[in-house]
Recover the amino acids of this structure.
């Protein structure tokens, strides 16, 4: 589905995901409508959500509601997801993207089910395993990308090389950088550091002339702006992101007098809920994973992120990028 | 070597480690002397360090200097360390602990060389692979322990179970908690989350009746105080710690007016350099790894940490703790 920036954007919303129930969804919908005037939603969820939406007086012109009460347990096995949850709100929202009724979908549900259903319903762009990718703030108005953040439980060196290409193919659209500096997350920058799989991935990424590879980066430099794309496996990326969130949470949740002064002392650009919303790169369509525990603003930001990704045709662009293929394959074709 | 709290404590200092050269060491020595009046040092390093110490007028009564110019490259292979660096400052400082001339040793050198030499010179307490353990602030005056932070590149489920017992055996001395709540670091708290090795470790730890095990903990809760001991493999622990440091660094390094207000807004208890100094638990002697890039205060804190560990006979206590043995072995013996 092609789209120009000025056109209205339709996002399919899984109204069953997330830890905060109908109240959280309704709050997020109202925020998102205020933030993005061209946004329309198709909301899939239980009747209680529909009632809450009506009661909230969210602009009924701007959303369609589809009754889809079936929610998927957060840690349901992929095999069971595909077998038993094909009529779930999550599956129906993905189907709306597949059918061209929505430009993007968003869910706060479990990562495992979301990745399994996205692969199954939308299909993969090919050559690369899909990966969750987030924008990380690295300075005022400046962002880096990090992937994978948990779409895959394990990753081979070849998978990590794939994530690098996926990130490089998407960076112009996600962080507006066309020749991104790429780094591999590791516990040190010296040659011999870290597990073998990371050192093998370094050799693969380093030998692809299309990638601007700078070597290893340590997790304390994720937010430094030293790299534009940080490549890691899903487990390690998730660990690093959550550790970072934990510390940011301590600084932003001080109380009393400290809370008052914190407004004047915090870096404006590092606001944890601003980086909610991970893109599932590598599937044929735009899928955004929102944090399960996201607040209203955070979930709204994720929806706007979905709309933004849709407006720049990220899905179409990725499918046709030569970077999706490994260097050898690119030479052959 | 037995020791009462009031007795003077001697720490052997590897004066070749760390990224900041003689200047950093001298600054740290002066800080440490001021912080811990009963502290004495044996300092091993090059003649330039000796000259810098004399020039600084650090109290000559309180340190002995031993000329040991040989430094070990940060990422030297263990095999080469044992073969070529037996006269290095690091090795000599460890030998001082072995011979009973010092109660503890501290180094800002490479983790790999330090672990290899510690195992070789001091020997291991047995049953468990040594692990790097740090105290993490979780509230005003309250601490948790996290291990392993990088002594081992990989860990089996059995190793993780060993780290749990090592932590439990040391917790009374390191964080003054005698029945610690123990958790395993993972990307989620649900049963099926994370790689197989972590789920196997959960089963091992969970079936040892001597351990107060609460299950998985996510990295955003490391500083929450939910757990007293957080068990993880060296790679993951190092990733989480460095990600946390990176974010804390952003909040504490704001400049200008923000810097002024930050004094009134930051939580008093979360000061990154306060948790410098990791204990290498599981070797027969007290070994502290200081951060290579540690500032003067941070390195001094690490020395005081070494002295504190020495003063409570941590080494002797660990060797004799029944927890060092797995539950089955404990039943047999």
């Amino acid at each position: 589905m092609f789209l120009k920036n000025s056109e209205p954007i339709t996002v399919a919303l899984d109204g069953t995901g997330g830890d905060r129930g109908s109240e959280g969804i309704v709050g997020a919908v109202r925020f998102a409508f205020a933030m993005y005037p061209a946004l329309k939603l198709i909301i899939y969820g239980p009747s209680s959500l529909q009632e809450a939406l009506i009661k909230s007086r969210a602009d009924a012109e701007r959303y369609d509601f589809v009754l889809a009460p079936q929610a998927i347990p957060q840690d349901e096995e992929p095999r069971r997801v595909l077998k038993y949850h094909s009529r779930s709100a999550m599956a129906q929202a993905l189907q709306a993207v597949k059918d061209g009724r929505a430009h993007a979908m968003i869910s706060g549900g479990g990562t495992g089910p979301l990745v399994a259903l996205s692969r199954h319903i939308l299909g993969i762009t090919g050559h690369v395993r899909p990966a969750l990718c987030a924008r990380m703030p690295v300075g005022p108005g400046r962002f880096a990308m990090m992937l994978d953040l948990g779409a895959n439980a394990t990753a081979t060196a070849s998978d990590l090389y794939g994530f690098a290409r996926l990130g490089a193919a998407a960076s112009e659209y996600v962080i507006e950088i066309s020749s991104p500096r790429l780094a591999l997350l590791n516990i040190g920058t010296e040659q011999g550091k870290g597990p073998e799989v990371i050192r093998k991935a370094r050799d693969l990424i380093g030998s692809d002339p299309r990638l601007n590879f700078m070597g290893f980066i340590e997790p304390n430099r994720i937010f430094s702006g030293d790299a534009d794309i940080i490549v890691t496996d899903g487990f390690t990326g998730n660990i690093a992101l959550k550790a970072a969130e934990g510390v940011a949470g301590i600084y932003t949740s001080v109380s009393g007098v400290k809370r008052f002064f914190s407004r004047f002392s915090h870096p404006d650009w590092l606001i944890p809920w601003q980086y909610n919303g991970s893109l599932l790169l590598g599937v044929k369509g735009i899928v955004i994973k929102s944090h399960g525990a996201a607040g209203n603003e955070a979930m709204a930001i994720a929806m706007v992120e979905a709309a933004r990704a849709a407006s720049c045709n990220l899905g179409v662009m990725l499918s046709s990028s030569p970077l999706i293929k490994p260097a050898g394959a690119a030479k052959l074709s």
Summary: The mean pLDDT of chain B is 86. Chain B touches chain A through 51 residues (CB under 8 Å). DSSP finds twelve helices and eleven strands in chain B.
